[in-house]
Design goal:
One of its GO terms (cellular component) is DASH complex. By secondary structure, the chain is mostly helical. It contains 6 helices and 3 strands. The protein has a 3-stranded antiparallel β-sheet. It starts with 13 loop residues before the first helix and ends with a strand.
Length: 257
């Protein structure tokens, strides 16, 4: 078995240096005190430099975070404050004009609706008046043709005698009915109001409060047939009087309020 021969101690080894240094007072490595002291000083300088680099790194990290936050705030400010499409005075003026235009359009539509409703009511009223006049004409012709000069002519029933209390109650009821009628019957035309009161009293005084002939309600010279027709149409429209022509004869039955 071969062995590697030991190498000769190098002349630059620690032992050789220790043996050749005459100033060495102690054997061993005592000559390294100065070198180690210098090495310790350099190590302290290195540690101080490393500590400075660490503090610089921390300062850079703090600066980077603060600078990034500032950039983020500037970006958000640009997105929220510096908005080129934000409303200005012209935008508010346009919005005001648009609102006025929409309000005018709504009012115009409401006027058209009211005009159409009024036209429909007028047409219905005209139709009712024409039908009533036709019924009255037919009833008058029938009565004229069927009447006998002396024996078969019916006399209008006289007004029933009422007590003071009944007169007051009837006056109150007539006032309630007239208050529900259009303005022209409520005092705008005193003659028309008086005619309406006469028609209402005639309906109340009729047998079973039902009138078969419109002529029974005529009271010349003020309460003519045209006035009676007008009053009956208003009462029928307010459903105070019920008009029934199912039997072939037009009947007006008092309903009241």
């Amino acid at each position: 078995m071969s062995r590697t021969p030991l190498r000769r101690v190098s002349q630059g080894s620690l032992f050789a240096i220790s043996a050749s240094d005459p100033d060495t007072q102690s054997p061993g490595l005592g000559f390294l005190d100065a070198a180690i002291s210098e090495f310790a000083d350099e190590t302290e300088h290195l540690q101080a430099n490393v500590e400075g680099i660490r503090k610089l790194s921390e300062s850079l990290a703090t600066f980077n975070e603060s600078f990034a936050s500032w950039l983020y705030v500037m970006d958000m400010n640009a997105l929220t404050v510096d908005w080129p499409q934000a409303p200005n005075s012209a935008s508010f003026e346009l919005a005001r004009r648009r609102a006025e235009r929409d309000a005018l359009a709504a009012m115009e539509a409401m006027r058209r609706t009211e005009a159409a409703a009024a036209a429909a009511r007028e047409a219905e009223l005209t139709k009712t008046m024409e039908q009533t006049e036709a019924d009255i004409t037919y009833a008058g012709l029938t009565t004229t043709n069927a009447s006998v000069p002396s024996a078969k002519t019916k006399k209008k029933p006289g007004k029933p005698k009422l007590t003071a209390k009944e007169k007051r109650e009837r006056s109150i009821e007539i006032e309630k009915v007239i208050s529900c009628l259009p303005l022209e019957f409520r005092g705008s035309d005193p003659n028309l109001r008086r005619n309406m009161e006469g028609v209402i009293e005639g309906l109340m005084n009729a047998p079973n409060q039902t009138v078969k002939l419109v002529t029974d309600l005529i009271q010349p010279p003020d309460l003519s047939q045209a006035r009676v027709n007008k009053c009956l149409i208003a009462l029928v429209n307010r459903k105070v009087v019920q008009k029934n022509s199912s039997t072939g004869t037009v009947l007006y039955h008092w309903q009241g309020i």
